[in-house]
Amino acid sequence: MTRYTVNCSILFTEQPLLERPAAAKAAGFDAVEFWWPFPTATPSEAEVDAFVRSIEDAGVRLTGLNFAAGDMPGGDRGLVSWVGREGEFRASVDIAVKIGERLGTEVFNALYGNRLDGVDPAEQDALALENLAYAAGRTSAAVLLEPVSGAERYPLLTAADAIAVIDKVGAPNVRLLADLYHLTVNGDDVDAVLAEHIDRISHVQIADAPGRNEPGTGEIDFPRHFAALERGGYTGWIGLEYKASTTSDRAFDWISADSAGSGSGGS
């Protein structure tokens, strides 16, 4: 059955961040995921503890967490390949892994980062391999690479782009994050990606296209893709990483009663 996890960095945004896990629980879900939830790559112990408590007190699982990715609202898309910020990235890895150990987190997303002015792309790519190897060595959970749309200088646009980096790292726990929205918007063949790389995928995220809103507001055939994932043996979570086109209490109306039941923690 499909299992849904709510991305609380993009949903329930009308509430303070630390109140969103409880909001997801009240909406009927038992699992949440987050982008990097702190204002810096090196939060205080008190900030980390407050975040962990918000998950525990809500009675949900933290299934996924991004490593620090820079100023996301300002256009940054990751630190993995950002020359000069290696220390920040690795510090966030260490913190995220400790959070994951406390909460049983299964996947960590390592956003690759934009191309930088005045820096050789080959130097960025070499650093990315080192940073990904570092992250993979710090945890037995999956370290994810994600093709992303909407960022002109982000170099990983297709599943093949991400797989090429994954192969160069060579660590078995560096895996593909298949965001069906980003893949669709970037013109990738989602059917082919799921058929060819299902054994490399450790997490799936969804939003409809165009618009990046909830399924049913765009043109992506989610039932077909979900069926392909099931046929391929995918048993992971489906991250709801979309902007609600309506109020938060109606943002999940597209999920059928049976799917909502399984998505609230069923297998």
Summary keywords:
267 residues; alpha/beta; TIM Barrel; eight-stranded parallel β-barrel; 9 helices; 8 strands; globular; disordered C terminus; HyI-like; isomerase activity; isomerase; Xyl_isomerase-like_sf; Hydroxypyruvate isomerase family protein
Which secondary-structure class do the elements indicate? alpha/beta
Whole-number total of structural domains: 1
Q: What is the percent of helical residues? A: 25-40%
Poorly predicted regions: 260-267
Question: In percent terms, what proportion of residues is strand?
Answer: 5-15%
Determine the CATH topology: TIM Barrel
N-to-C order of helices and strands: EHEHEHEHEHEHHEHEH
What Rg, in angstroms, do the CA atoms define?
Answer: 17 Å
Output mean pLDDT.
Answer: 95
* The level-1 CATH class: Alpha Beta
* Number of separate helices: 9
Question: What is the number of beta strands?
Answer: 8
Largest sheet: 8 strands, parallel, barrel
Family: Belongs to the hyi family.
Protein name: Hydroxypyruvate isomerase family protein
Keywords: Isomerase
Pfam families: AP_endonuc_2 (PF01261)
Q: Would you write up a description of this structure?
A:
- The chain is of the alpha/beta class.
- The protein has a single domain, classed as Divalent-metal-dependent TIM barrel enzymes (TIM Barrel, Alpha-Beta Barrel), CATH 3.20.20.
- It contains nine helices and eight strands.
- An eight-stranded parallel barrel has the order 1-2-3-4-5-6-7-8, surrounded by six helices.
- α2 packs parallel to α3 and α3 packs parallel to α4.
- The protein is globular.
- The C terminus is likely disordered.
